Task: inverse folding
């Protein structure tokens, strides 16, 4: 991957992990297009704010078309809605599917073919450890689990063309999502580390996966779990 004029599309760039990823990439010399429905929080000559509702398919397609030729895509946009069986909302389930899965598919469908033709490209989808299943979050877990299947499938399709596709799945992360009124009935589970994962820690791993040094890593779901995956005695 060339170090000249590297361009990345980062979704959810106005808060949380997406914001941290965009800031990290800008500090490394990338040009970043931030896809978000919220106003931008970054002022930088290398940053282009793209206001788009990623739950609206045609708008997402149109925004992606403007960035064909980008070297990387980081899909960090997300929302969390919680409910037990018997109280699941079809509308909220559809919202999460559109934002987490459909938006990723649409943007990748526009950008990745050109990456493959150029012989290089990086895709990172921000998943969640919740994808393994947790009470009260079945719809969210299902959409995040779908990202792993997308990543492995796309990785298999593009590995010979120099494109890598991976998922980064953090445990509970210190973002504005924790303050969302829609999830106030459930508290985040602290990992054994004893604190929440920081967005900058996730961004650091994402940036590595976008680098030339990570060219041999593809089709993987990498956990940032703070020890949550360990069997502690």
Result:
């Amino acid at each position: 991957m060339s170090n000249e004029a590297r361009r990345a599309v980062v979704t959810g760039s106005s808060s949380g992990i997406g914001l941290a990823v965009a800031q990290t990439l800008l500090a490394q010399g990338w040009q970043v297009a931030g896809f978000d429905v919220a106003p931008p929080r970054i002022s930088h000559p290398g940053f282009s704010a793209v206001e788009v509702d990623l739950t609206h398919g045609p708008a997402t397609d149109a925004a992606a078309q403007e960035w064909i030729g980008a070297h990387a895509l980081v899909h960090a946009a997300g929302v969390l809605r919680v409910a037990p069986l018997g109280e699941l909302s079809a509308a909220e389930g559809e919202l999460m599917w559109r934002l987490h899965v459909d938006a990723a598919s649409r943007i990748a469908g526009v950008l990745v073919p050109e990456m493959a033709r150029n012989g290089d490209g990086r895709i990172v989808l921000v998943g969640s450890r919740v994808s393994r299943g947790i009470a009260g979050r079945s719809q969210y877990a299902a959409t995040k689990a779908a990202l792993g299947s997308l990543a492995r499938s796309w990785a298999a399709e593009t590995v010979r063309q120099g494109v890598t596709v991976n998922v980064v799945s953090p445990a509970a992360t210190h973002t504005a999502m924790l303050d969302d009124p829609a999830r106030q009935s459930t508290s985040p589970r602290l990992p054994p580390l004893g604190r929440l994962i920081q967005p900058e820690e996730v961004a650091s791993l994402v940036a590595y996966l976008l680098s030339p040094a990570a060219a041999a890593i593809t089709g993987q779901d990498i956990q940032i779990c703070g020890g949550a995956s360990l069997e502690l005695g």
